[in-house]
Design brief:
CATH topology: ABC transporter involved in vitamin B12 uptake, BtuC
Order of helices and strands: HHHHEEHHHHHHHH
Largest sheet: 2 strands, antiparallel
Structural class: mainly alpha
Number of helices: 12
């Protein structure tokens, strides 16, 4: 039982982390809560369903197309909705409200196109999980862990070493100063929307392959991803990875003591505790006016 809880916690932590880091990339660059990101997470598996089952595209190409499609959705949403508002010097609150409206529209579009009912998508048929230390783990769960670790290490390196990563840090810390230094802040934000949305779609695909999917499936992972950002600190990639791991462990080991129905309550109790201890963690960046 304990080993299975540990495996489940690790898998869920990797899912939370990929969603968290995708949200983090957009939030740190743009400076507002992009709640429509939840619909982008849900769009990933539905695009995979469209390409693989409806259009007959091979799985590998369908997955790449679905992830790329989510990146395109993120870029289009920024260009059509958020950039005009940012150019009017709209506050983070206005942008957040716009993101809520965008989420409703996108989620309803998914429902209209694919239906509201729960659907399942699998690579091959159902297979028995592999036995590891008395716990069962499926191949897609192994892939999820591999993706989570790769994304954590890759982005931690990219943010520190590469020129786009340094531009991202400059815009995240002070968009006005970054613009004065010759960095095109608007382009950096657009890149972050594309990359963050692609990562969000990747997380949605992994979650759907492990469980199932409905049009509203993206909101819960997004909320837990935000909790991971708060717990780990909205400053470092590996800190967010630690926050996701701590959240997943608290949920899955906590249910052994108090029951499964309290799993969400554990997450929000952690969120409340860390907001009380570090209320400035998200407020510092979100209070900055969104400038182009």
């Amino acid at each position: 039982m304990i080993y299975q809880a540990a495996v489940n916690a690790l898998v869920v932590s990797c899912q939370y982390f990929v969603v968290a880091i995708s949200f983090y990339a957009i939030y740190r660059a743009a400076g507002f809560f992009h709640f429509a990101h939840g619909a982008v997470v849900a769009a990933g598996p539905y695009l995979l369903l469209l390409f693989s089952k409806w259009l007959g595209v091979p799985w590998a190409l369908a997955a790449c197309a679905a992830v790329s499609g989510c990146g395109a959705v993120g870029c289009v949403s920024y260009l059509l909705v958020y950039r005009p508002l940012r150019r009017r010097n709209s506050t983070a609150l206005v942008l957040m409200l716009a993101s809520l409206g965008t989420y409703v529209v996108m989620q309803n579009l998914i429902s209209m196109a694919f239906g509201d009912y729960r659907q399942t998508i699998r690579l091959g048929g159902l297979k028995e999980g592999l036995g590891i230390l008395g716990a069962k783990v499926t191949p897609i769960q192994i892939v999820t862990v591999a993706v989570g670790v790769s994304v954590a290490l890759g982005l931690a390196w990219a943010v520190r070493v590469t020129m786009p990563g340094k531009a991202f840090r400059a815009v995240a810390n002070d968009p006005q100063l970054a613009s004065a230094s010759g960095i095109e802040s608007d382009r950096v934000v657009l890149w972050c929307f594309g990359l963050g949305s692609a990562l969000g779609g990747t997380a949605g695909v992994l979650i759907a392959l492990d469980l199932d999917m409905i049009p509203t499936m993206g909101m819960n992972p997004l909320v837990f991803g935000i909790v991971a950002v708060v717990v780990g600190g909205a400053r470092r990639v590996l800190g967010i990875a630690f926050g996701a791991l701590l959240l997943g462990a608290a949920q899955h080991f906590g249910v052994l003591a108090i029951g499964f129905r309290w799993q969400d309550a554990i997450a929000f109790a952690m969120l409340f505790g860390f907001l009380v201890m570090r209320p400035q963690e998200l407020a510092r960046r979100g209070s900055v006016k969104a400038a182009p």
